UniProtKB/TrEMBL annotation:
Source species: Vreelandella songnenensis
CDD domains: TrwB_TraG_TraD_VirD4
Span of domain Helicase HerA central: 128-263
Protein name per Swiss-Prot or TrEMBL: Helicase HerA central domain-containing protein
UniProt lineage: Bacteria, Pseudomonadati, Pseudomonadota, Gammaproteobacteria, Oceanospirillales
Length: 591
């Protein structure tokens, strides 16, 4: 039995009105050794209907001034509350949904803490806890098997506690389920601000940390200072187009010819040197030379480190008639003067000792020379790509290494991009997501026998569709990569967790595919509108709390949960907290 607090006096569809007894207004009550919460907003009541208990949540409270009662000789107004059914108890336990409705004069009772816990803990792991319910102050376990088998969104304004929630969620997972998930799942964090480079989440023995930096040269003896890519992956059209933001109609076909040329004519240095020699002869002996050809040849000679050829090219000029001039004489198309004056220096070209990045610059310049001679392209369409390749490689060489030796990564891989420039912060996450998605998709069984979990903190940096600083083509390509993963990845056992300050900036396609949400304080109207129109499992009462949630408090809802919950997330210990705390000016400025 429980404490009777009132009875049903009206049923309007799914809205129930109860007349509440006076003593039920107390905050806490004890009965038969159990603790009960009094009747207030968001509390739960049990209404008996036959052999079933219909569970209702209190949504409103008012006094009926038209009716009064005598209490201890004093006239008092009648207290009423409005409640909404959320489910019912039968022999099998709690069942969510409205199947039965109470009738007038059915008695209402309070629910003990244990009974409330059974509502939310029905399919949960009682030990997997990251906090306690805000109102009831009951620690409720989360259904971790259903939660991590889905896409997760953690949203909240700056300082609302979303980073602590993200870290807490995975810290508890690694602490409690390490033996279960090791060898069966992998976790990758794209860390823009360097928040997870210490003791966060799990021990160093289970973590691989890549500290990428464009500000300093990488330590050649430290394999974690650069991210490893296989040559086949680097020399792939999708990768090249991503790294250098190639346009669809002209620059992507050009890169395709560069890659096909490498595959067709061999990959050894001798083949590359012979290819360069052939293109030099073709350019010098062409019927009409393009103005840009001479600059391309000078770039090739410089990249191959051939000083004699550089000196020779410095003496060559291009006249308006489309002919090269060397020391006062034109180079004729039949190749006679070329063989005498130019060929001896060109034959000294050597491609030994070049890395993949230098080889790419060479092949791009040589392919452009060939295309210009053949009239395949217009130089002004390819030049922007050429400049991006040459300018980007200095930074890419600092953060990437091309190696055939696969990396030995641990259970958790943290890729810190805190010290990378803004250009690479936009490109690298796409490259990493594509790298893990394609490699996982190519080896996973059907159904999947292993999973991979991609965690993106500050996700608005790369998933925003509001950016006006990039072309629409590149924006579409960037979003398509992640939209494919979030729409199709579940089939292959790949799941995404995103945390963001501005959910309204993130692509609506991506947000609509998220299954479970941890929503901290949000005050922007666009963010709240998105929440209203995206999350079908969020009730109006829970939604109304979002703008006024305190730090660390969040609304938890989604397919893994029977009902929305308000949870106060536990604060992690100092060394386990993500490095995102506000500056303590009192301590900083103190003497």
């Amino acid at each position: 039995m429980s404490i009777r607090v009132g009875e049903v006096i009206a049923v309007h569809g799914t809205k129930i009105v109860l007349k509440i007894d006076e003593q039920s207004s107390k905050e806490t009550l004890f009965y038969d050794g159990d603790k009960y919460k009094g009747v207030s907003i968001r509390e739960y009541l049990s209404i008996q209907r036959g052999f079933r208990d219909i569970i209702c949540m209190v949504e409103g409270e008012f006094l009926d001034e038209s009716r009064t009662e005598l209490l201890d000789g004093k006239q008092t107004f009648v207290r009423k509350v409005e409640a909404r059914p959320i489910g019912y108890f039968d022999r099998s336990g709690f069942n969510q949904g409205i199947k039965f409705l109470p009738m007038i004069q059915d008695a209402a009772h309070l629910l003990s803490e244990e009974r409330i816990r059974s509502i939310f803990d029905r399919e949960a792991d009682g030990d997997f806890k990251i906090g306690q319910m805000l109102k009831e102050e009951i620690a409720v376990g989360l259904p971790w098997k259903r939660l991590f088998n889905s896409h997760i969104g953690i949203f909240g304004n700056t300082g609302s506690g979303k980073s602590n929630t993200l870290a807490n969620l995975y810290t508890v997972l690694f602490d409690q389920k390490l033996t279960v998930i090791t060898g069966k799942s992998r976790f990758i964090i794209l860390d823009f601000n360097g928040e997870y480079g210490g003791e966060q989440l799990t021990s160093a023995a289970n973590k691989t940390l890549y500290q990428l930096s464009t500000m300093t040269s990488p330590d050649q003896n430290d394999p974690t200072s650069r991210f490893p890519l296989a040559p086949d992956e680097f020399w792939e059209l999708e990768t090249m187009a991503l790294l250098f933001q190639a346009t669809t109609n002209t620059q992507r076909p050009f890169l395709s010819r560069v890659i096909n040329g490498k595959q067709r004519f061999g990959e050894n240095p001798a083949s590359l040197a012979n290819y360069a020699k052939a293109k030099f002869r073709q350019s010098f002996c062409a019927g009409e030379v393009k103005p840009a050809t001479l600059d391309l040849m000078r770039t090739v000679a410089k990249r191959m480190g051939n000083q004699p050829l550089q000196d020779l090219l410095a003496e060559i000029t291009l006249y308006r008639n489309g002919r090269f001039n060397y020391r006062g004489a034109f180079i004729d198309p039949n190749g006679t003067q070329y063989a005498v004056h130019i060929a001896p220096s060109v034959e000294t070209l050597d491609a030994q000792g070049l890395d993949e990045f230098d080889e790419l610059v060479l092949r791009v310049n040589l392919q452009l020379m060939s295309d210009l001679n053949a009239g395949y392209v217009q130089f002004e369409y390819i030049q922007p790509l050429l400049k991006r390749v040459e300018s980007s490689l200095a930074s890419l060489r600092k953060v990437l290494t091309i190696s055939r030796v696969p990396s030995a990564e641990q259970l958790l891989t943290v890729i810190s991009m805190r010290r990378c420039n803004n250009e690479l912060k936009k490109i690298l996450p796409l490259l990493f997501a594509k790298h893990y998605y394609n490699s996982h998709k190519s080896v996973v069984a059907n159904p999947p026998d292993c999973t991979i979990h991609l965690i993106i903190d500050e996700a608005h940096n790369i998933l925003s569709d509001q950016s006006a600083r990039e072309s629409e083509t590149w924006k579409d390509y960037r979003l398509e990569q992640f939209e494919e993963i979030i729409k199709e990845g579940r089939k292959f056992g790949m799941f995404i967790t995103i945390a963001s300050q501005r959910p309204a900036d993130i692509s609506s396609t991506i947000v609509s595919q998220i299954h479970n949400f941890f929503i901290h304080r949000l005050v922007n109207d666009r963010d709240l509108y998105l929440i209203d129109n995206t999350i079908s499992t969020l009730d109006s009462l829970s939604r109304s709390h979002i703008p006024s949630l305190s730090q660390g408090c969040c609304v938890v809802t989604g397919t893994a949960f029977e009902l929305p919950m308000l949870i106060q997330v536990d604060r992690l210990l100092g060394n386990k907290q993500p490095a995102s705390e506000d500056v303590d000016l009192e301590r900083l400025w103190s003497e």
